[in-house]
Amino acid sequence: MMKLSVVFLMMHLCWPGSKAGKGCHDPDLLERAEVALDRINKDRKEGYILKLDRLYDFSMEPKGENYNFFMDVVETKCHVLSRKPFKSCEIYGSVGVEVYGRCTISKAPHDMTTRYHCVLLKVKPSAIVGVCPDCPTDIDLDSNDMEKVKLTLQRFNSESGSLKYFALLKVTRATMQWVVGPFYFFEYTIQETVCTKSMTDVNVDQCEMNKSESARVGFCKASHLSGPHLPLSPSIDVNCEIYEPDRLGDKPDPLLGSVEVRPSTSTLPPRLRPRSKNCPGDSTIPKEM
């Protein structure tokens, strides 16, 4: 810890003059922080793309090759498998930000590896219900709910033009609200299997995943509504984005890090006051929660 503090202090003493003056409001510095966060998002295999809210603090050597970025982030509706830039993604939340947190992105002297660590926190369900009583809220999936998820995936497989079946990888979000009956919303990732649609009597649950380099993955958003007053029950809607395999990697240098998602009953870790002049930057995203 002492060694890290000394490095941090030395990098502060070596700021370029313009960045030291404008601090976290410097446009060039913000652009570098945005590029760094986009690279982190592309490095991840699970979770949702994070969007920059503000730059909280920073340190940087004159040449800009070594840096520490401390930033506030919010979660978006885009899954990391899409590899989209965060500026093209909408913030996740029915009535405001529902998942927010902090990221540290660092590149130390004589180290080619960019390191990162993010801690995210979910807004308490009571805060959402207090603002919007009828909005969907998170649910814990049981076996009946999983059957509903599988029904939506069956619909996609039956209607898609793909020559192969896709199987469920992971349910990433599940919410529910009451309309004329229970209205479920699911988000999940899928992967191409070795089973083709030319086969008969296929049980997708028994199909092996396609592990070749050409295997495609996808991200689905689906809904399931049932009730006695519906002409067709259940009413199912599903939309999946399918992504081709990324062979280029898009990694100019190695990355190493993690993203931790804490429950709404937890808290974010404490942090020091900004050491840089004119920091933190302005929050660009209103947090109603």
Automatic annotation (TrEMBL):
The keyword Transmembrane helix does not apply. The keyword RNA-binding does not apply. InterPro entries: Cystatin_dom, Cystatin_Fetuin_B, Cystatin_sf, Kininogen_Fetuin_HRG. It comes from the Eukaryota. One of its GO terms (molecular function) is cysteine-type endopeptidase inhibitor activity. Residues 130-241 form the Cystatin fetuin-B-type domain. Keywords: Disulfide bond, Glycoprotein, Signal. SMART domains: CY (SM00043). Residues 249-289 are annotated as: Disordered. One of its GO terms (cellular component) is extracellular region. PANTHER family: FETUIN (PTHR13814), FETUIN-B PRECURSOR (PTHR13814:SF17). This is Fetuin-B-like. It comes from Clupea harengus. The gene is LOC105913174.
